[in-house]
Task: inverse folding
């Protein structure tokens, strides 16, 4: 199998090299920017490199799919890593980390006297109220939305087929008294986003730009919108790992950035305090080591070790450790994110000391080596005895299918790479695949992420993708297309026989048991 391109190694190597050398070299251009985080070696900030190595080794041993990892101590980046083909310059889906950004916007609005957390939710939407306003709906406040204590029995679920999510939310029954119980709901956060837009005439994203994003140097963040142009609030943000680190450091510094108090310290304290407990029926002993039971603030989870976190599905984490003056960030595609936090507690927390450590050149070199070789396991592999097709192309007219694909063409290049083109609804989608290596590209074709009917791709394309292809045997080509910003992928298993092709299409959003079969006849 080919080795991945050296450019990917260089990114990780330079970052790791800076940890050891930035104290003795002139400041780089990136460090001179006032909103940039500086870099240092782990030992200079009181962190034993061996613990970081053990963390990375444990991630590999337990086969956790991390995409990036960043560790900050005393305001400095001391470790940063990406698992190829993920890269430092690309946005990554945040899932529910988006909620913390929405609650931060509420904090700015409170500070500007646009609202209070005790304001009634119905006061913001007089045109969207149901005919019968129940006592519980009347009692619902902004604070109940922030703390996930609306009072719903089950969280509401809406899709893009519904034009007005605000109206749908306000019409959803609230059988329990607001504030009485924790019930996680992404649409409670959506309502917070809608409140910001109602008050300011701006989306949450635009509202945050001058107040938070620009001061912190966050300049490529994207956010999904609903059919009415309201940011989805509870999900849909895409941002870089370094931007997650900036947000975590901003919270660790209690709303201050580069000496300027952007958001009052009192709001940060209030937002990161537990206002409700998720599992009140269990004993303290049962809850003691459960990171899902330490309490919930304003769209922020309390954690063990007196930490708190912004928390997104499948391992998007910004963990803030005030007692250690540290921030830990991960992006991932790991179904059980608590396994990631468990490794943080086991390997990273114990090696953070209150004094600087002597530099260990051997451990530093091992860390550089470990980071430079990080990659996702290859999805396939061409047997050494098999030679791929080169310098040929084929087109196939497809039978009617549920994907609406009318034609498929394959171009097999001199180096073995493959260009797959799908012809669908009058559009052509060119998809790049490397031969036993990832090959980067862009596409307007929406991926599996958008099979969830609440998600809308408006304004987010073209999508960053990377493709990997292997010949499993002489007549079968396996292709994986990874949507980098969404972390979902599609598999194309292509079988060629005589003048026909059969493509079995699966994806990571739905069960692999759901196989779509596409059949085609070769065009002369």
Result:
């Amino acid at each position: 199998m080919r080795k991945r391109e050296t450019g990917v190694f260089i990114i990780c190597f330079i970052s790791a090299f800076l940890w050891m050398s930035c104290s003795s070299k002139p400041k780089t251009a990136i460090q001179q920017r006032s909103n940039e985080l500086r870099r240092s070696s782990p030992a200079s900030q009181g962190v034993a490199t061996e613990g970081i190595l053990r963390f990375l080794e444990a991630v590999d041993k337990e086969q956790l799919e991390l995409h990036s990892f960043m560790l900050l101590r005393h305001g400095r980046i001391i470790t940063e890593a990406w698992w190829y083909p993920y890269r430092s310059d690309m946005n990554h889906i945040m899932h529910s980390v988006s909620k913390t950004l929405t609650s931060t916007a509420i904090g700015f609005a409170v500070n500007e006297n646009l609202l209070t957390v005790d304001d009634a939710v119905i006061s913001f939407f007089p045109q969207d109220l149901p005919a019968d306003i129940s006592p519980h709906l009347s009692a619902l406040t902004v604070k109940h939305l922030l703390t996930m204590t609306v009072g719903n029995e089950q969280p509401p679920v809406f899709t893009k087929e519904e034009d007005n999510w605000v109206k749908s939310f306000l019409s959803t029954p609230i059988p329990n008294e607001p504030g009485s119980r924790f019930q996680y709901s992404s649409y409670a956060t959506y309502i917070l986003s809608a409140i910001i837009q109602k008050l300011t005439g701006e989306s949450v994203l635009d509202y945050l730009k001058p107040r938070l994003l620009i001061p912190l140097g966050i300049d490529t963040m994207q956010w999904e919108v609903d059919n009415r142009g309201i940011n989805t609030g509870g999900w849909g943000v895409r941002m870089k790992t370094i931007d997650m680190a900036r947000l975590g450091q901003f919270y660790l510094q209690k709303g201050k950035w580069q000496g300027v108090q952007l958001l009052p310290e009192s709001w940060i304290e209030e937002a990161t305090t537990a206002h409700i407990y998720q599992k009140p029926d269990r004993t303290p002993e049962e809850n003691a080591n459960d990171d899902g039971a330490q309490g919930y603030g304003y769209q922020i989870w309390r954690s063990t070790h007196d930490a708190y976190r912004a928390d997104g599905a499948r391992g998007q984490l910004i963990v803030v450790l005030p007692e250690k003056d540290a921030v830990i960030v991960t992006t991932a595609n790991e179904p059980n994110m608590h396994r990631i936090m468990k490794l943080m507690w086991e390997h990273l927390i114990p090696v953070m000391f209150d004094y600087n450590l002597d530099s260990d050149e051997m451990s530093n070199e091992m860390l550089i080596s470990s980071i430079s070789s990080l990659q996702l396991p290859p999805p396939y592999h061409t047997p050494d005895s098999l030679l791929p097709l080169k310098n040929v192309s084929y087109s196939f007219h497809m039978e009617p299918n549920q994907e609406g694909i009318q034609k498929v063409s394959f171009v097999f290049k001199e180096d073995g790479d493959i260009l797959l083109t799908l012809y669908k609804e009058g559009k052509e989608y060119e998809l790049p695949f490397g031969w036993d290596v990832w090959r980067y590209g862009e596409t307007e074709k929406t991926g599996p992420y958008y099979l969830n009917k609440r998600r809308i791709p408006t304004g987010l394309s073209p999508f960053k993708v990377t493709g990997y292809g292997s010949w499993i045997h002489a007549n079968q080509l396996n292709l994986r297309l990874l949507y980098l910003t969404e972390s979902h992928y599609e598999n194309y298993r292509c079988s060629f026989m005589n003048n026909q092709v059969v493509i079995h299409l699966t994806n990571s959003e739905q069960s692999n048991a759901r196989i779509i079969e596409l059949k085609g006849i070769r065009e002369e």
Observations:
- Residues 395 and 409 are 4 Å apart (CA to CA).
- The radius of gyration is 25 Å.
- Confidence is low (pLDDT under 50) at residues 1-33.
- Residues 6-21 form the longest helix (16 residues).
